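Protein Record: Sequence and Backbone Structure Tokens
======================================================

Structure line: whole-number tokens from a learned vocabulary of local backbone shapes, matched to residues.

Purpose: to set a sequence beside its fold so the mapping can be learned.

___
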Amino acid sequence: MIPFVIALVLGPRTIAPEKVVQVLGIRVGQDNAEMLEKRFGTAKRANTGRPDNSRYWDFPGGFRIYSDGFGTRDGKTPTDYLEVTGWSGRLDKLKVKGKPLEFGPFGPLTRGMSPAKIHKVMDPVLGKPTDTGETFFWRKLVTHGDATRMFRFRTTFKKGVLDKVSWETGSR
């Protein structure tokens, strides 16, 4: 794994950026969906404006992983968006092919969790989120080599409880 150049200050404590941007065994914004396919099998193509880049996997138990990427000039398509929906229990208890999935500091999040409990779990790690009423999101800059990118983590609520989590990178 390519080392990150700087540590990222996230609220009350410092966490190495790879702990935040590495989810499901890939580095969001750097690795591509083919890496996810090696791990999870062939994906279904999502019906979006970018069908070659939008993919999803459905797993037993009803949870889905969705990924999307935006092609670059050099022909690479790094995954710049990951989303998990439909899971039960804690994220860090999910398994695929008998192996646990990696969610780093987001692992304790539980579908159906209240906003107050999300604050209790995530605020010590990422600081206070922006609260839109239906979504909490955190924005952090991550520097890797010569590139600095914006990293966003989002929790989305349905009927007042956690329903979806997503990770996204983009230019500043």
About this structure: Helices lie at 17-21, 33-40, 115-126. The first helix runs from residue 17 to 21.
